[in-house]
Amino acid sequence: MEANGPNASKVLDGPTNPMVTPLLTDLYQFTMAYAYWKAGKHNEQAVFDLYFRKNPFGGEYTVFAGLEECIRLIANFRFTEDEIAFVRQSLPSSCEDGFYDYLRGINCSDVEVYAASEGSVVFPKVPLMRVEGPVAVVQLLETPFLNLINYASLVATNAARHRFVAGKSKLLLEFGLRRAQGPDGGVGASKYCYLGGFDATSNVAAGKLFGIPLRGTHSHAFVSSFMSPDEIVDKSLRSKDGSTTCEDFVNLAQTWLNKIKWSTSLHGLFGETNQSELAAFISYALAFPNDFLALVDTYDVMRSGIPNFCAVALGLNDLGYKAGGIRLDSGDLAYLSLESRKFFLAIEKEFEVSGFGKMSITASNDLNEETLDALNKQGHEVDAFGIGTNVVTCYSQAALGCVFKLVEINNQPRIKLSEDVSKVSIPCKKRCFRLFGKEGYGLVDIMTGENEPPPKVGERILCRHPFSESKRAYVVPQRVEELLKCYWPGNSGLKRGDLPPLKEIRQRCINQLEQMRSDHMRRLNPTPYKVSVSAKLYDFIHFLWLNEAPVGELE
């Protein structure tokens, strides 16, 4: 479908996953839509906020992700005849035929979507999206929007937290496809881990779909599939510049292994290495001389894997190639990385091979935030981390808990009350701003009524906690940023915001996290970021609360 407004000529493709259709919703959305239609209320103009109540993983920030998929859905939101037939079959037979004619005509040309930019750092209670339009249509969007935002934002946040602990200088590789919750979980996790700050993925499908860099070498199965170097038939390898050919690279690697074994600095550190492992490394190097990276823990890291790797790497070096490094997938990763680095440095010094001591060391093996933090405290020489299960499954928290609440209908503000104050919604159509202080950090997010004058730079503004009377503060912002932008204009005539490439969204995420104060980011007891409402909106919330809450009677 074409977008309305000034850039109406731009047509968007449908969602990445073809399962994301108008039927990807809960049954009660259709029963409500029918009830709205039956009551003649289906075209009443409604405003819904999509937000969450609590940051995940015990932290104090969240990364917003999934917006593009939502916009792709509404750009192509039409019911097919087959889908309408299934809805008819699923609803009671008493539902009138006119309702199905209504479904045939539904699209999102009357819907408006205002949202935070994808990749932004966001906080509880502040709307991630504001969706306006005919109540029945917007209600049908609730479940798919929540589905597309909840998991995406959770994974992106999890990835950002792993990035923060690992540090800026380390490569983070997402290796989680085999442990993800099905194909869609795997592909989505790869996309949103990259958005959250990871550098590459092992997931080939995600690489094709989203342009994410791919990384990967071989498994233990490849190493253990070899029995001896005698299995290698074609032993020749042409030099990198093409000027010469080594006719027996196996012999070259074995010669180097012997040199290492009897070298001054490394003599006595190992005896006979596993020759089947050496055969596997040689075979892999012959296949990928420019990208040789070996998994060195199949048998024994320091007494076999590292010496065998170095022998092959030095043979490649003789022919003008540079080996990529090693991967450790078990054992004491801190200790093994330190010992491996010592071994590489000794090779560089003894054999005068420039740069060999800086050989890349990758670590994997069920890593998570806690193990990364422990490695940092112990001291290590790991350059890259391959992280799978814990990042893609969000093992430490299963769901973000976004909700989709009606805040206004026919220009009348609505509120959802609860005995649990955290579940009370903030009514009416709102504008949302981030106020920045002198040091460039965000101080507070503030929500105002739609028609209130916006906060201004240098102008003192009272920021109030939405529900706690005593929590309030004056702020004089040095910079003001409005958070919600138009991404689907409906009939408003506004320009539709661009949906940038994934790489740009990833950079936005990185930039925004760098603008966060360190005490908001820390793993242990982070400082909560302040979320507030204007004084006028605070008064209105509590007026409406008292007006809607029933008064009890005591006898």
UniProtKB/TrEMBL annotation:
PTM notes: Transiently phosphorylated on a His residue during the reaction cycle. Phosphorylation strongly increases the affinity for substrates and increases the rate of nicotinate D-ribonucleotide production. Dephosphorylation regenerates the low-affinity form of the enzyme, leading to product release.
TM region positions: none
EC number(s) per entry: 6.3.4.21
Coiled coil region boundaries: none
PANTHER family: NICOTINATE PHOSPHORIBOSYLTRANSFERASE
Span of domain Nicotinate phosphoribosyltransferase C-terminal: 429-540
Keywords: Glycosyltransferase, Ligase, Magnesium, Manganese, Metal-binding, Phosphoprotein, Pyridine nucleotide biosynthesis, Transferase
UniProt catalytic activity: 5-phospho-alpha-D-ribose 1-diphosphate + nicotinate + ATP + H2O = nicotinate beta-D-ribonucleotide + ADP + phosphate + diphosphate
Keyword Ion transport: no
UniProt name for this protein: Nicotinate phosphoribosyltransferase
An annotated GO BP: NAD+ biosynthetic process via the salvage pathway
Pfam families tied to this protein: NAPRTase_C (PF17956), NAPRTase_N (PF17767)
Cofactor(s) the protein requires to work: Mg(2+); Mn(2+)
SUPFAM superfamilies noted in UniProt: Nicotinate/Quinolinate PRTase C-terminal domain-like (SSF51690), Nicotinate/Quinolinate PRTase N-terminal domain-like (SSF54675)
CC annotations in GO: cytosol
Keyword Metal-binding: yes
Pathway membership: Cofactor biosynthesis; NAD(+) biosynthesis; nicotinate D-ribonucleotide from nicotinate: step 1/1
Nicotinate phosphoribosyltransferase N-terminal domain boundaries: 23-150
Gene3D superfamilies: Aldolase class I, nicotinate phosphoribosyltransferase
Family classification: Belongs to the NAPRTase family.
Gene Ontology terms for molecular function: glycosyltransferase activity; metal ion binding; nicotinate phosphoribosyltransferase activity
Role of this protein: Catalyzes the first step in the biosynthesis of NAD from nicotinic acid, the ATP-dependent synthesis of beta-nicotinate D-ribonucleotide from nicotinate and 5-phospho-D-ribose 1-phosphate. Helps prevent cellular oxidative stress via its role in NAD biosynthesis.
